[in-house]
Amino acid sequence: MVAIHPFRALRYNPERAGELSRLIAPPYDVIDEVVQERLYQVSPYNIVRLILGKQDPHDTPNDNRYTRALRDFTGWCENQVLRPDPAPAIYVIEHTFEEQGRPRARLGFVALLELRDGVERDVYRHEATLDAPKADRTKLLETVPANLSPIFCVYPDAGGAVQARLQDLARHGAPAAQAAINNERIRLWVVTDPDVIRDVAERLAPVAVLIADGHHRFEVAYAKRQQYGALMSYFVSMEDPSLMLQPIHRVVQYGAAAGLQVLHSLCAVERASDLSSVMRWLQAEGGEGRFGCYDGRDCYRVTVKPTSLARWLMSPPFPLPVATLDVSLLHGLILPSLNVNGTGVRYTPDASQALRMVEGGQGSLAWLLRPLSLQQVYALAAQGFALPPKSTYFYPKVPSGLTINPLA
Questions:
Q1: Predicted confidence (pLDDT) per residue in 348-404, tens digit
Q2: Taking a C-beta distance cutoff of 8 angstroms, is the pair 108, 234 a contact?
Q3: Residue ranges of the domains in the chain?
Q4: Is the pTM of the predicted complex or chain greater than 0.85?
Q5: Beta-strand (E) ranges in 102-148?
Q6: CB contact at 8 A, 9 and 400
Q7: CB 96 within 8 A of CB 222
Q8: What letters, b where the CB count within 10 A reaches 16 and e where it falls short, cover 203-216?
Q9: In this predicted model, what pLDDT tens digit does every residue of 388-407 receive, in sequence order?
Q10: CB atoms within 10 A of CB 263
Q11: Strand 290-294 versus strand 365-368 pairing type
């Protein structure tokens, strides 16, 4: 079972820190150097200075991105840039955005996820983790005793009961904070009503949650559960129609001797008129092993041949339920035929950007994938299967800086 708890979050004090829109940031793992610099410039109190501080060639064990984060965190708390809420609460967050030109509003809440022994059986993970990011997040947690960003979890919500409760709260109460990020709007409500908190906690208690984003931070926090006991988490109902699960497309570079012609032994390759027609075909067609492809001149519809699929499934390098996924077929069957390894792949959730990357010389082919269904990811994770890296993109990302959970 899953146990959640309210907490007294540290939140930005607008009288000292300024406008919240200038203080929040995307999650650390999608911040590149350009975005990092922009966030540094927009405010001396932007959360990026805590979650992903700049590195310096002259860093030492006593002066580095982690120690500077601690210095800023301590100073902001002492100077009331960050201040604790007066009472334990859960924090309802409405995230408004556009998807294919249509307005969407995802509703979730932030609470503490109790990290008791055995909770990993009720927190499903669908991505394998890497040592370097875990070492980085461990060092940050050991230096700055706080959950600076929530992990992102989704949960089964029979009949949408929790979702309805959150919608009622958002309709009848004024938000405590508002912000904008990347043309998206955020509204936050502070919920201290013990009856509401108890109801939400009781409804989540019997279910297992799926980590949508934050696998490395979960594993780091779970390893330190005896010390800290809980992890700040953002929860969204699987019944929320604005919970978007997008594919991550690939841009690959192959050797001069390879090309689309090598695919004909494995796949049926058909030229398409444009990107829109490829995307409509991907959305309409079922079956395993269907991709869009772009070589800088033309778009193609690519389908793994039944004979190729049958041979692949006779001895796949992945468990059978994972081996039939498009992303597994691409990385295990197709890309090796182009002599492409993992270091020759770039990633983007934006299909149009994937095409622009090829046109800009960042790759030879763009591979466009279909999204997995949320139910499919949940079912695979429940069976203990890890998906290939970068198989899912839960959109939009949860901003950092809305709430902080102090651990000391």
A1: 999 999 999 999 999 989 999 999 999 999 999 999 999 988 899 999 999 999 999
A2: yes
A3: 4-245+395-406, 248-370
A4: yes
A5: 102-114, 123-124, 146-147
A6: no
A7: no
A8: bbeebbbbbbbbbb
A9: 888 999 999 999 999 999 99
A10: 22
A11: antiparallel
